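Box 3.1 A note on notation
Throughout this textbook, protein chains are presented in two layers. The first layer is the amino acid sequence; the second is a token string describing backbone geometry. Keep the layers aligned when reading.
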Amino acid sequence: MIDYGKNINQATALSAWWKLADKYNRSLPPQPVVRKLPNGTLKTVYIRRGLISKSVIETGEKLILRYIEAFNQARKLNLVKNEAPSLSTNSVELSRLFQTSDRTVRAHLNVLRKPGIGFISQYNFRGSRANYELWINPEILWAGQTEISKNAPCAAPARLQNKNLPHIKQLETPETKEKEITHVDKCGVAEQQGAMPAGDGKTGHTITSDTGPQQPAEIPVEAAVRPLAAKKQATEAGSAARAEKDAQKAVFLTYVENFWTIAWKLLYPTAEFNEYCQRMAKNAIYFGVYRGFKAQLSAAEWEQYHLQAIERLKLAANYYENHPDKHPPLPYAEFKPGTGYFDHQNTRGFEGTHDWYTRQQVWKRQQKVNDALRRAEKEIRLHKQGKLRDELQRKTPLEMFRYQETRLKRFGKAALDKFYAQFSTQIPNS
């Protein structure tokens, strides 16, 4: 029996809807269709008619989100008793929310109301000038809430797969190109699930049972673990016989723990993940973000890479904050391998933030160069006017030029060429 007083798990409800739509589509019998090929021969193909289209499935997803919003509001007003409340709305309102036409909304609702599909369990029309009421099948909304199994979806916020980070073509320059992590693990998700070393690295315990949904630990986003310090702690805590490799392994687990804690806080702030789902998320991070730590990097280089990964998380969080209609998918692949947000195969997930980070570094570097050029121009001008501070005013024009030239050299040849182009006519002779 369904307890209508329970919260609706968004991810579980969406998962139930996807499974229901897939089951319905698979149940449709293939029908023969004769097609005439360009060479004049006839070919019989079998197709399924009446499939639930992708756009209808997306409308169902949006209706679930809209219903959950209305349900939570009804609970605040103490209107939820022993039955599920209805959603009072109209096609014009839904078309505005769904960014489509009201005609499309009506057509999709007609499909979702079909008894064979079972998405809308009840529909009450009150005339063309009033809102209609609809009820979504409670077996979808409260699916799997009586028991949390190993294979149950995590209690994450709704994540539509077509709302991922947009892929940005990589922008690289010789001065800003990052050191790539090579030797990428090519195993599938199913093989990777048990590949991450047991235990969580930070707390030291091994996950052996499911304790139910949990919330992220309250760790400040700024508290990114610095691997060199973690390595020192791991080495000191070990016995004399413990190899350096074991200490480094503990550090790697600390990276993953720290990264996941911050990712949970930034990207999934309202989500609940049970221990199994956390384990899967960390596994995806271990292989997707850090490539199984197979790259031959020094401790300092791993530290730099880890801190860059945290910065990339902040870029992703900023993106979703500025685009509230878009959401990252679950951290790991739930159905199709390589579609989890942290899977390295998903170029529209966290993998795409590498290009964002590179662009940001290019922009920051250019800003520093522009600031340095403006400062050089200002100080050379004030030097000519005799208004510069004493330690610089005592320099000759040539010494002042060489002083600014030396400061620009640290930004590279491109910055120095801009300096020469800007002051080529002002180079002193002596």
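The first strand starts at residue 31 and ends at 36. The chain has three domains: 10-141, 161-348, 361-426.
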